[in-house]
Amino acid sequence: MLVTFYGGTREVTGSMHMITTQQDRILLDCGLFQGRRKDTAEKNRILPFDPRILTNVILSHAHIDHSGRIPLLVKKNFTGRIFSTRATHGACEYLLPDSAHIQESDADYLNYKAVRSLLADISQGKGEEGTGKRDAAKAVKLLKSGKNSLNREAIDGYIRKYSLERAQSLYSTEDAKAALGSFEGIPCNNEVTIGKDMTCTFYEAGHILGSAISIIKYRDGDRTFTVCYTGDLGRFDKPILKDPAQDFNEADRNVDLMIMESTYGNRTHEGTEDLYQRLRDELNTTFDKGGTVVIPSFAFGRAQELLYVIHELFMKGEVPRVPVYVDSPLASSMTKVFGEHPETYDRETHKTFLETGRNPFIFDKVHFVSSVDESMKLMREEKPHIVISASGMCEVGRILHHLRYRVHNPNNTILIVGYMAEHTLGRKILTLGQEYMESGQKGEPPMIKILGKEYPLKARVVRLGGFSAHADQKEMMRFLKGSNLDVKKIAVVHGEEQSSLSFADHLNQQGFQAFVPHAGETIRV
Ligand SMILES: [Zn+2]
User: Fold this and answer.
1) If we measure between CA atoms, which residue out of 463, 464, 446 comes closest to residue 455?
2) What is the CA(207)–ligand 1 centre distance, in A?
3) Do the Cβ atoms of 296 and 401 come closer than 8 Å?
4) Architecture in CATH of 272-467
5) How far is the CA of 97 from the centre of ligand 1 (A)?
6) What whole-number distance in Å separates Cα of residue 160 and Cα of residue 150?
7) Ligand 1 centroid to residue 29 C-alpha, Å
């Protein structure tokens, strides 16, 4: 049995590995590379193999850096099945079309930019002789059909007229929908056949709704080879989801190769235990001053965790029951998916909510904002409330408008509950806001640019670190040492190079045999 590491090796995104036996080729995840367009566009477009050679795909969880290139497989004539847990299938029903929509908007924007710059050249006389300068200047205005919407037809017309190269989306909404038809939702702890003499069993990974650790077994004569793919590993004792599995069926325990993530392989998180207290304190501080709490959040996972914890604080009477607005259509859909999969919840969730007939995420104070009008009305709401909105890193989406209306007021709080990548507005707000708070909010407030305009950042900016969905180094060791697996070798993947290398070192010091593969490397199991 051969294992090839294609993506998510010495980097965090683009997870993809392949298991090859005499008869079959099984793909483990098919993730999108994320980051700056110029670094990722080519990597995403070119698959290192013809998808027609694949038998089936195993999908560890629905996050786009693990699932986001599945529609591309189907677009390129992959005909097998995609095995995942049922909750992952449910989440992909929304996340893959959403990803397609982002790809399509991206291509539209590139085409718009190309036409706009050509017309600008013509209007400034840089174009061919004889083209109407004034017409070109006028035409630029017609490329948009509203303040934030593009006139696709007009743009297409110019692309044809001037034979410009058209930017194509990686895949379309139709491709994403077609891919969903190939999904096969499998419950955890159920062995399914995925190839000749090959099976897969899913176990809880505790990372996000539906996330699974996969045990893949291949029988070759009287010898069985076992690969354990951790996918992304979650943390212990977090709200909602069950902890990462440690009790594996006897037949699954002898692991020849574990493919293990290492996102936080060289770091330790803030504990999960003080999460409730810290959130409670921040909410109370804000409401005492009559302020509003704005929370930029990922639509899948973080938004539902927030609802869960706020619901519990409300039930215990520890914070005033102010209205809670979820202002992100995707987050609203994902909340529905969470509600449909109680099989993934831990014992506390069952005890606190389900046994008393409550839905953990939907309670009388929660409002799911759907229309843009409703969203605009909410910006002007004066009474204290909580807004959970996307995108998580404040790059696009409705969160920008909430920030625009709230950042200038020192009574408001912007709560940072997720990772903010470099060069994002979220990172800027976090860094500048915290610096200003540490200075005792003295002197001129920092200015931040939202949708092209500058605003003074006077609102309190507070980071709550306990929400991370990835196990840190200690928790990964707890998973390994506490499990009943007997692991011969570990391939360390899904981490920045430094993180993976130092985690592999740590594993080797602890008596495991670990290595960090390079992209494209193949090993024999
Ligand atoms: Zn993930």
Assistant:
1) 446
2) 7
3) no
4) 3-Layer(aba) Sandwich (3.40)
5) 18
6) 17
7) 11
Taking the centre of ligand 1 as the mean of its atom positions, its distance from the CA of residue 516, in whole angstroms, is 19
Q: How far apart are CA 3 and CA 254, in angstroms?
A: 17
For residue 422, give both structure tokens. 């470099």
Please report how the helices 302-315 and 275-288 are oriented relative to each other, as an axis angle in degrees rounded to 10.
70
Query: Cβ(136)–Cβ(119) under 8 Å?
Result: yes
Q: How far is the CA of 275 from the centre of ligand 1 (A)?
A: 21
Give pLDDT tens digits for 180-194: 999 999 999 999 999
In the reported structure, the alpha carbon of residue 208 is separated from the centroid of ligand 1 by a whole-number distance in angstroms of 7
Q: How far apart are CA 352 and CA 16, in angstroms?
A: 38
Residues 6+ apart with CB under 8 A from 210: 61, 62, 84, 85, 86, 87, 88, 89, 90, 91, 341, 344
- Centroid of ligand 1 to alpha carbon of 94 (angstroms): 16
Q: What is the pLDDT of residues 362-386, one digit of tens each?
A: 999 999 999 999 999 999 999 999 9
Stretch 14-25: mean pLDDT: 97
Q: Given this model, what pLDDT does residue 128 score?
A: 57
Instruction: Say what the pTM is.
Output: 0.92
| pLDDT tens track for 210-237 | 999 999 999 999 999 999 999 999 999 8
Q: Which residues contact 108 (CB under 8 A, 6 or more apart)?
A: 150, 152, 155
Average pLDDT of the residues in 429-435: 96
Rounded Cα–Cα distance for residues 356 and 140 (Å): 60
Q: State the CATH architecture for 2-85+186-268+469-524.
A: 4-Layer Sandwich (3.60)
Banded model confidence at residue 269, pLDDT cuts 50, 70, 90: confident
How buried is residue 156: exposed, middle or buried, by Cβ count under 10 Å (0-12/13-18/19+)?
middle
CA-to-CA distance for 494 and 217, rounded, in angstroms?
A: 22
- What is the 379 CA–ligand 1 centroid distance (Å)? 32
Query: Which pLDDT does position 131 carry in this prediction?
Result: 56
Q: Whose CA is closest to 429, among 404, 466, 397?
A: 404
For residue 485, report the distance from its CA to the centre of ligand 1, in Å: 22
E strand map for 417-484: 447-450, 453-456, 460-463
> What burial class does residue 165 get, using C-beta atoms within 10 Å of its C-beta: 0-12 exposed, 13-18 middle, 19+ buried?
exposed
| Antiparallel, parallel or unpaired: β 366-368 and 324-327 | parallel
Q: Does residue 388 surpass a pLDDT of 90?
A: yes
Q: Where in the chain are the domains?
A: 2-85+186-268+469-524, 97-161, 272-467
Classify residue 141 as exposed, middle or buried by CB count within 10 Å of its CB (0-12, 13-18, 19+).
exposed
Mean pLDDT throughout 233-253?
96
DSSP string covering 144-189: BSSSS-B-HHHHHHHHHHTTPPPP--SS-HHHHHHHHTTEEE--TT
Q: What is the pLDDT of residues 510-519, one digit of tens each?
A: 999 999 999 9
